[in-house]
Every structure is written in structure tokens, then in C-alpha cells.
Amino acid sequence: MAMASTLHSDRQPDKLRSLGIVALNGMFDEMDAVGVMRQAVAEILPGDVAIVSSFGADSVVLLHIAAQVDPSLPIYFLETGKHFPETLAYVEQLKKQLGLINVTAIHPAPHDLARFDPDGDLWETDPDSCCHIRKTEPLEPITEQFGGWVTGRKRFQTKERGVLPHFELTSDDRIKINPLAYFNDADVAAYKAEHDLPEHPLYSHGYKSIGCAPCTSVVAEGEDPRAGRWRGLNKKECGIHYDFSGAIASPMNAADKYSLFKDGTFVADPFRVWDETMVAGEARYAHVPLPVFLENREAFLANPHPLGLLVSPGDRVEDAEADLGRFVSIAIKFPAFTDGRGYSTARLLTERYQYANELRAVGDILQDQIPLMRRCGINAFVITHKPTREALIENRLPEVNIFYQPVGTSEVPVGTRPYLRRAS
Ligand code: SF4
Hints:
- This protein is of the alpha/beta class.
- It has 16 helices and 14 strands.
- The longest helix is centred in the N-terminal third of the chain and has 17 residues, at 127-143.
- Residues 1-11, 239-254 and 417-424 have low confidence and may be disordered.
- Residues 80, 82, 123, 127, 130-131, 134-135, 211-212, 214-215, 238 line the site of iron/sulfur cluster.
- GO terms for molecular function: phosphoadenylyl-sulfate reductase (thioredoxin) activity.
- Pfam families: DUF934 (PF06073), PAPS_reduct (PF01507).
């Protein structure tokens, strides 16, 4: 993978701050797209700028500008696994024709696909989660490597972008560069014609904005080009942090975005809270309350999609013993700090029933509880309490080494002499 020559920690936020993003836009507002790109790449953040490109219908203009300024500029292509074959061919065509020598495809994590989208049809029912797994998550470690990102966003595309400047400073001192901010449809067409740039192979077939195949459709004459993206859904962008034209929206720490803490970090959570509109035979990625599962057991067992189980205080998890392996996640509800019933449920699941998938704690969870929960086999936590989130990020949780109710065979109850315990 291509690496930026400068890591984020070595960057020059002070320079950016002192220069001021307003001044930057004032200085380069009149500059053409090639000039803006050249300033960013050569002067403002040399060696610390990259592009994410969808290699869609409009991508060729930005890529051509990049090739003029620096053909070795790192360009990342999100290979979601859902692209049209024509798009994959177009990537190769543009690499060759424009002389781009630093294009890297980034892929979704296989374990995320296996866990959250085993059938490859998540886009159908939950496109936001699909975009998270296939775009946002793979992109995140890449964005952290660079201080500047070139986007293909344009003012005319949406009303939210109506005031898009050439340069934007993000909250973590990264800079987004929008060389095409002032381009309109006619400008794009004129640029393509002037430089004799190849169209995406599907453009002439009515695809005016092209992303993943399942979420892209032909648009009618006169229709908004983006009407063909996620048609029928109230969705216009690929997610909070990545948009359809390859723009990095607003970089944030994972800990700021997500509530699920798992494997030592905050991660995207594909699961939703069960609601009454969900149907037993069709639901997916929801924690089904235990009583609802028991009432509709046959339908849930026939449901082929990933599901979780929600166990609340008073629920008898024993009643679902035979079906526990059906759930990829079990959520145990801890409604209050003083309610310890969830610990017993967790131990029952892990020790007696050998449940080995995700076991998560939900509810009012504070940092002192987490070491105790971990002892009981809980391996994921939905955390909203701010100090607890900070403690997790900084890895400062209290240690537990006195046990009144030991777990497993290695913990010795307080006041017990080990040799006596062994003897007993
Ligand atoms: S655009 Fe569609 S197929 Fe592609 S990642 Fe998003 S939801 Fe999935």
C-alpha cells in the first residue's frame, strides 16, 4: 500500500492554522482546478495528500487533473466487491491511459463480510450498514495516514454543497481540497471533450452517476443524475464519512461515532434495537427480545439472516438453550449499576452453555463494571457514559483481584487459603 511521506502526527497544523483556511480560500478562490490541486499537492501539504476515487461517471476529470500535477499521487479505489465489471475495467483503462502509477484498491475486511453480510445482500435491507462495512470501515485506516484529501465534490450537486469552498479544514487538522467545487455539469462535459477523456462504459447506457451495481440504476432523460443512486431510498451519501463522489466528509475518531466497544476499540455496530414493525421471518441485525423469540420461535429459526438475542433481567435464558447457537450476538441488559442479574446470565451462557459468539452488555454501564463483566465472558459493551468511554479509550479500567464469587477455576475466593481450596 502506498504510504504518505508524512504521518499525521508530524504534520504542520500550526502552519495551517496560522495560514487560516479563510485566507487560503481567499488566496486561491479564483484559481482553476489544476492550480488548486497543484497548490495543495506541491505547496500546502507536499507528500501528504491523497485521493479517494469511485472511478464513476465523473471521476475521470479529477483523475486527469491529478495526473497532470503528479501521476504518483496516491489514489485509493474502494473495491466494495459490488462494482459493475465495467467499473473494474474502467479503473484499469484510466490507470493506463492517464499514466496513474499509484492506484490502490482497498477492500472490506473478510471477517466483517462473513459476520455481517454472509449472503452479500445487506445492501437490500440495510444499505447504511453495507456502506459502513464496505466503504467507511476499510477507508478509515487510510484516511488517518494523510493530512489532505482531494475530493471531486461540486457545489451544484446538492444544496448542502452550495457553499463548498476549495479548501476545508476538518476538526482534526486535516484539509479537504475540492478543486472542482465551482464546476457544473457543462464544465465537466467541456473538460472531458477538451481532453478527449474516455467515459465510463455505462454512461452511454443511461447511468449518469455510478457506484455499486446493486445501488445504481439508469436515470431517465432530464432526471437528476443521482436519482439512480439508492433509488427509492432516503439515502444520498455512502455514509457519514464518505460520500458518493469520493469525498471524505468529516473525519472523526471511531470513539466519537460508535458506541460499541469490542476487541479493544470502538467499532461500527450493525445491530439495531428490535422494534414492533420487524417481522420474525425477515428481520436481520436486530437483538430479538427473548420473549418475542420464544413466541415466534419457528419463524425465527427459519429466518436465514444474522440475528441477535436480547436477554433482560427476569428472562430465563434456559428457555432458549437449544437455540443459542442460532444467534451471532447475545445482548444482556444491565438496567442499573445495582442490578447484578446480568452477570449470572453471562456466566450461565459462557460456562454452562459454552456460548462463544459475541456477548455484549447493554444498558447503564459504568467503567467499574467492565472488569467484572469481562470475568463473566462478556466481550462487547455498548457504552454511552462519557467518562467510561474515555477510560476505555485510554485503557484505564480498575483491576479486580479480590473475588467474593470466583469465576472458573483460577480465581480464589477472598479469605480462602489456596491449599485448602485445592484440597477440597
Ligand atoms: S453502495 Fe450499495 S452495495 Fe455499495 S456498499 Fe453501499 S449499500 Fe453496499
